[in-house]
Amino acid sequence: MLTQESRQKDFPSLQGMTYLNSAAESIPPVTVLDALNTYFSDKAKGMAGRDNHFAELEKCREVAAELLDKSPGEVSFCSCSSEAYNLLASALQLTPADEVVISDLDFPAGVTPWIAANQPPVVKLWSNRGGVLELADLERLLNEKTRLVQVSLVSFLTGYRIPWAPFRDLVRSLAPNAILSVDVTQCFGRIELDCLDADCLISSTHKWLLGTHGSCVVAVPERIADRLTTRAGGWYHISNAFDENRFEKAIPVSGARSFSVGMPNFPAIYALRAGMEYIRNAGVKSISTHADPIISELQGKLTDLGIKTMAPPQPDCPSGIVSFQHPRDSEINDALVKENIHVMRQAGRLRISVHGYNSMEDIDKLIGVLKLWT
User: Fold this and answer.
1) Which of 255, 264, 302, 304 has its CA at 20 to 30 Å from residue 50's CA atom?
2) Do 133 and 147 have their domain in common?
3) What is the pLDDT of residues 61-96, one digit of tens each?
4) Do residues 250 and 290 both lie within one domain?
5) 323 and 309 in contact (C-beta within 8 Å)?
6) Which one of 281, 302, 329 terminates a domain?
7) 3-state SS track over 205-235
């Protein structure tokens, strides 16, 4: 992943293109394809393959737990981050007397469950200033009625990364009753996570983790398991699903495992284990050490072109994403597509994301096109 040789061997689809869009869809290594083929082979055995399916699930849980510094019992899986957040809402059972803090740099999955509730809580918006979420602005939003503070450690929109320790300490001090939930979709597998002491961690798997669609990692520490047990219907997470009293009451298992409400998406689980094992073997620290200077180089060259990024550079708190707006974004995007350079363009915004399989050469090719339009 980190060298030309490993990229050619493990990511053959990267040949001939410049891929800078892992924040939307990563390129999986060939081991993920191998894992999916293994799933199909197991599935072709019918019921005899189920033992392998569930064994793979537990192996995937162990790898995720290792990467998140959790015990396997504190980690579970559902189908996507949207499902995870709706299940979190079912656990919290918020009322109009409760307050929730969200940020305007968060992804809709972590924002809409509280707004769309039948009896929504009071939702307070932590708004960014020039791409930065200022703690002084957050301070005014927190109190003893705050039941949830929901943020993304790294914003999908701008790449801004919240400095964790001062943020966490402020929330714990001024909102002692709040659950601190963090979407790590745009950083899990790319940077060393410093937010592992949050109350709930949620991550999609088809981006930096090199997996496929159809899965989501959820981590809930045992210390908070009773408060974060979902109240959804289902069967896989119901401890008495087939007992004699199953038509009288539904008793969910507690904590993280309550987020797996139905039959696991085994193809995605096979793929996710392979992707996470690849990340683990490459080393998240090594990925950051390799990719962070590429991001820094990109930011410097954008500055040289007079392009202002949507979030200021954070040398002490880097992420894998750089976004900017440009009056000729449509023409730039067409030129990039013509040169087989892949970035995200959305609503006038161009977003570049750098993973461990990227190189300085990718940035040189991108800048070469930008120079023509700036």
Assistant:
1) 255
2) yes
3) 999 999 999 999 999 999 999 999 999 999 999 999
4) no
5) yes
6) 281
7) CCCCCCCCCCCEEEECCHHHCCCCCCCCCCC
> Which structural domain range is residue 325 located in?
4-27+283-373
Domains contained in the chain, number: 2
Give the mean pLDDT of 126-137: 97
Is residue 153 a contact partner of residue 189, using CB atoms and an 8 Å limit?
A: no
How far is 85 from 62, CA to CA, in rounded Å?
22
The three-state secondary structure class of 360 is: helix
**Cα 16 from Cα 28, distance rounded (Å):** 16
Could you tell me if 311 and 351 lie in one domain?
yes
Per DSSP (E only), the strands in the chain are: 18-19, 75-78, 99-103, 122-126, 146-152, 179-183, 200-204, 216-219, 321-325, 341-342, 344-346, 349-353
CB 273 within 8 A of CB 59: yes
Same domain, residue pair 299 and 212: no
Q: Are residues 17 and 97 in the same domain?
A: no
Tokens of 53: 């399916």
Half-sphere exposure of residue 357: CA atoms within 13 angstroms, side-chain side: 28
Residue 267 main-chain phi, psi, to 5 deg: -55, -45
Q: Which residue has the tokens 């070469």?
A: 368
We report the CATH number of the domain holding residue 13 as 3.90.1150.10
Dump pLDDT digits (tens) for 194-241: 999 999 999 999 999 999 999 999 999 999 999 999 999 999 999 999
Closest to 362 measured CA to CA, from 269, 266, 295: 295
Look up the CATH number of the domain holding residue 108: 3.40.640.10
Confidence at residue 373, expressed as pLDDT on a 0 to 100 scale? 84
Q: Are residues 127 and 202 in the same domain?
A: yes
Task: Please tell me whether residues 228 and 303 are part of one structural domain.
Answer: no
pLDDT of 248-278, one tens digit each? 999 999 999 999 999 999 999 999 999 999 9
User: Do both 252 and 362 map to the same domain?
Assistant: no
Q: Are 262 and 241 in contact (CB under 8 A)?
A: no
Residue identified by tokens 């045992």 is 222
DSSP line for 131-165? TB--HHHHHTT--TTEEEEEEESB-TTT--B--HH
Amino acid (one-letter) located at 252: P
